[in-house]
Design a protein that fits this description.
Length: 389
């Protein structure tokens, strides 16, 4: 039985992880849960997994958790730094990082340094810290296993093949909730419109990133680190049906595509059961799928995608600046403080004014993140609000 720590257990990915665990009770045991502030959901999860230690990172919940006869005795910490200890000292065979935002970097590094494999749905940790995370993984012989459907698809298509055999990988993008909207008519788009994703059910931040196509820019950077691929060999196409999750084209011209329903439990099951496979009832018949179509990315419609690609190629701390600026801008949009069309403006300004540096340590990355948030707060007088964990 594989023992799991689930960071971000009350979010969309975390709940899907625990649904997969529920479906395979003989395969997995949850020994740790971490949430930000959703205590009602966390209580229910603790009742289902009575042996799990917990961490709650919102300081505003400290009194409530401490006086809670059910949660209090299980609580192993009440700060973001407590995530690191939970990740490395709970006796886990696998840490699942389903956190949202930059906060996911340190516990991922802590687990890998301790030799514990990490299944990562937290894009920001790989985007900002890909180099140091993969270095730590190699040093401790602990694997980084993707959870994103696109990277799970690439991993399956590459099984048994050498990267030298790969001509290119093609990430597919739904195009988000606004893919058919006039690009000139984005100023007054509402939060509800952006969150009405046509094919996927996801958390708020990733759904906004899907609408801006920032999610694909971040996934390009993830693919670069996870599969040791140069950026010139990573492409993106719009695929509205969300059935083909990625394609690998080999040097001989042949192509392999991984397909499945747009259900995050499928890539999660792959990540949890890797390197094996578990039987499930999540499959589908080809006859259930709609007609499949593909189109190039229109960068006029998706300026955030262009910014992400530029930051990726700049390297160093530029992806950290990109990710931090996007995190703050999306939070401001969701809170009603920034129009949807203002998101790329904030990101572009941050990239222009926070100079990138080489990365040699975790502190380099953390300082770039802090500098970006400081600059945005000073420039826009916008609170660097939380990340919705």
């Amino acid at each position: 039985m594989k023992k799991l720590v689930v960071l971000g257990s009350t979010g969309s990915i975390g709940r899907n992880v625990l649904d997969v665990v529920r479906r395979h009770p003989d395969a997995f045991q949850v020994v740790g849960l971490a949430a930000h502030r959703n205590l009602d959901v966390l209580r229910a999860q603790c009742a289902e997994h009575p042996g799990a230690r917990i961490v709650v990172t919102d300081a505003a919940c400290r009194t409530e958790v401490g006086s809670d006869a059910f949660l209090g005795p299980r609580c192993a910490g009440m700060s973001e730094s407590s995530l690191n200890e939970l990740a490395r000292s709970s006796g886990a065979d696998l840490v699942v990082n389903a956190l949202v935002g930059f906060v996911g970097l340190a516990p991922t590094l802590a687990a890998l340094t301790a030799g514990i494999p990490v299944a990562v749905a937290n894009k920001e940790s790989i985007v900002a810290g890909g180099e140091i995370l993969l270095t730590a993984a190699r040093a401790s012989n602990a694997e980084v296993v993707p959870i994103d459907s696109e990277h799970v698809a690439i991993a399956q298509c590459l099984a048994g093949s050498s990267i030298d055999d790969v001509e290119r990988v093609i990430l597919t993008a739904s195009g988000g909730a606004l893919r058919d909207r006039n690009p000139e008519d984005m100023e007054h788009v509402s939060v509800d419109e952006v969150l009405a994703h046509p094919t996927w059910s996801m958390g708020a931040k990733i759904t906004v990133d899907s609408a801006t196509l920032m999610n694909k820019g971040l996934e390009i950077i993830e693919a670069h680190w996870l599969f040791a691929l140069p950026y010139a060999r990573i492409e993106v196409v719009i695929h509205p049906q969300s059935i083909v999750h990625s394609v690998v084209q080999f040097v001989d011209g042949s192509m392999l595509a991984q397909m499945g329903k747009p259900d995050m439990r499928l890539p999660i099951l792959y990540a949890l059961s890797y390197p094996g496979r578990l039987k499930s009832d999540l499959g589908a018949s080809l006859l259930e799928f709609p007609a499949l179509s593909f189109a190039p990315v229109d960068e006029r419609r998706y300026p955030c995608f262009r910014l992400a690609v530029a930051a990726a190629r700049a390297g160093g701390t530029a992806p950290t600046v990109l990710s931090a600026a996007n995190e703050v801008a999306v939070s401001a949009f969701l809170a009603g403080r920034l129009p949807f069309a203002g998101i790329p403006d904030v990101i572009a300004s941050a990239l222009d004014h926070v100079p990138p540096h080489a990365v040699s340590s975790l502190e380099d990355i953390m300082e770039a993140d802090r500098a970006t948030r400081r600059w945005i707060q000073e420039r826009y007088a916008t609170p660097t609000a939380g990340d919705g964990r």
